[in-house]
Amino acid sequence: MAAGGPVEHGFPHLDTVRSAVTALYRRLSEDGLRTFAASVAPAEVTFGDEEDLHLGAQRVARELVRHFRLPDARLIVCFREMTHAAEVELAAGPEYFVELNDRFRTHRRDIGAALAHEVAHVYLHRLGLEFPTTAGNEILTDTVTTYLGAGWLLLDAYREHGEASQKLGYLTPEEFGYVLAKRAAVFGEDPAVWFTSPQAYTAYVAGRDRARADERRAPLAAA
Predict the structure, then answer these.
(1) pLDDT class for 36, splitting at 50, 70, 90?
(2) Domain range holding 120?
(3) Do residues 212 and 181 lie in contact, with contact meaning Cβ atoms separated by under 8 Å?
(4) Structure confidence at residue 3 as a pLDDT band (50, 70, 90)
(5) How far is CA 59 from the centre of its chain?
């Protein structure tokens, strides 16, 4: 989690991102992916200031568990001081303990984004889909979260306002935009309508341009 620090930009992980999308198709098949045609709706993960912190976090976690088709999984959410945005204990289940950074006590609008990544970890754990390295697995998790309809939350959590700057996840903002654009092309969505962060929209446009450039490269140039 970059909080107030420099944010990496560009497309440094693009090869791993493409490998992650390929691995997801091979594991789920196109028919399986079609069951994720609808993204997480903003209303499902909206977190008001008046809502109880812990009850609200559990509610959002349940919505994300439902989105990832994990009906028997139960997330126990708590908060503590830590470096990362969140961590999940990948045990046998059905209960999974998720710790969120204390920062989210006062940045509740981004709890859904942090939980989306952790629920995707549980989903991949159950699928048995993983990459050889920790870094590769985190890129895989961000890519799967986004391609399966919950990663727009991670991009929308990206904001640059001096000390209030924040970016969640391991993909760059532009890479999140790239994966979102790839998903949008398949499912006919326009994720731009959900963004509340202007920087998120800018990153999405940059990623969309890169995704469209793929279609002008061999072997798709004449398709």
Answers:
(1) very high
(2) 2-214
(3) yes
(4) low
(5) 18
* Amino acid found at 216: R
Q: Is residue 219 part of a domain?
A: no
For 7, half-sphere exposure in the C-beta direction (CA atoms, 13 angstrom radius) is 28
CA dihedral 172, 121, 198, 202 (to 10 degrees): 40
DSSP letters along 147-214, please?
HTT-THHHHHT-B-SGGG-EE-SSS-HHHHHHHHHHHHHHHT--GGGG---HHHHHHHHHHHHHHHHH
- pLDDT of 62 over the 60 cut: yes
Using CB atoms within 10 A of its CB, is residue 13 exposed (0-12), middle (13-18) or buried (19+)?
buried
Question: How far is the C-alpha of 134 from the C-alpha of 123, rounded, in Å?
Answer: 16
Look up residue 97 and give its amino acid.
F
Number of domains in the chain: 1
Output 140 or 49, whichever has higher pLDDT: 140
- 32 in any annotated domain: yes
Query: Is 52 part of a structural domain of the chain?
Result: yes
Q: What is the pTM of this model?
A: 0.93
Residue 33 inside a domain? The answer is yes
Q: How far, in Å, CA of 130 to CA of 10, rounded?
A: 24
